[in-house]
Amino acid sequence: MPNTVRPGKIVCVGRNYAEHAKELGNEVPKAPLIFLKPPSSVISDGEPIRLPSVSQQVEFEGEIGIMIGERLTRASEPDARKAIRAIVAVNDVTARDLQKSDGQWTRAKGFDSFCPLGTESGDFGDLSDLTVITRVNGEERQRGSSAQMVFSIPAVLSYISHIMTLEPGDLVATGTPSGVGLLAPGDVVEIEVEGVSRVSNPVIETR
Ligand code: ZN
């Protein structure tokens, strides 16, 4: 087994890019919309994403991931900024049909292998100038910048820390830009935070 680092918890932000909210017919939220993925969904570079047979619509979501380095409780934005340990590429794999039919997102977002995670990098430069790119079979499908986020990275961390304490080793996935799309068996999907972290995974059926 590859040496997968499992975050203590994974907090995700939904609809944090206006263009992505629009492509799914949703409004941009007035406050960050958050949900959890289970740590058991994490896989490493090269491990397969397994398509569950109960879904006909599994989609990729390339995202900028934040690894927390210091405990944050009701933190200010500057304190949240200082507590970032590393940036990682994240694929918030989602069974879109189940997300719609369930209402609650736990099943749609929580299958084993639904959270490919790149290697951590503490050398990421300007937080407001990170680019996330998704490629499927080598073809670019998503490109977004943290500058386009509805809620900035420090704002998201501060907001979450007013609800639940963020611990060292927790992961926050900051939302996906527009261009989400289907994954099929045989695909290879790569998420890259440009020049910082990347994760590439083949897609297989679970039968
Ligand atoms: Zn997402």
Could you characterize what this model shows?
- The chain is of the alpha+beta class and 207 residues long.
- It has a single domain (10-205), classed as Fumarylacetoacetase-like, C-terminal domain (Fumarylacetoacetate hydrolase, domain 2, Alpha-Beta Complex).
- Helices cover 16% and strands 34% of the residues.
- The protein has 5 helices and 15 strands.
- A hairpin with a 3-residue loop joins β14 and β15.
- The longest helix has 9 residues, at 153-161.
- The two termini are 21 Å apart.
- The model has no long low-confidence stretch (mean pLDDT 95).
- It binds zinc ion.
- Zinc ion binds at residues 12, 61, 63, 92, 173, 175-176.
Give keywords:
5-stranded mixed β-sheet, binds zinc ion, single chain, Fumarylacetoacetate hydrolase, domain 2, 5 helices, alpha+beta
How far apart lie the N and C ends? 21 Å
Low-pLDDT residue spans: none
Secondary-structure element string? EHEEEEEHEEHHEEEHEEEE
CATH superfamily label: Fumarylacetoacetase-like, C-terminal domain
Helix content: 10-25%
Spatial ordering of strands, largest sheet: 2-1-12-6-7
Helices and strands, with pairings:
Elements: E1 10-14, H1 18-23, E2 33-37, E3 42-43, E4 49-51, E5 58-60, E6 62-68, H2 77-82, E7 84-91, E8 94-95, H3 96-102, H4 106-110, E9 115-116, E10 131-136, E11 139-145, H5 153-161, E12 171-173, E13 181-182, E14 188-193, E15 197-205
The chain binds zinc ion.
Short description:
This protein is an alpha+beta fold and 207 residues long. It has helices at 18-23, 77-82, 96-102, 106-110, 153-161; strands at residues 10-14, 33-37, 42-43, 49-51, 58-60, 62-68, 84-91, 94-95, 115-116, 131-136, 139-145, 171-173, 181-182, 188-193, 197-205. It has a single domain (10-205), classed as Fumarylacetoacetase-like, C-terminal domain (Fumarylacetoacetate hydrolase, domain 2).
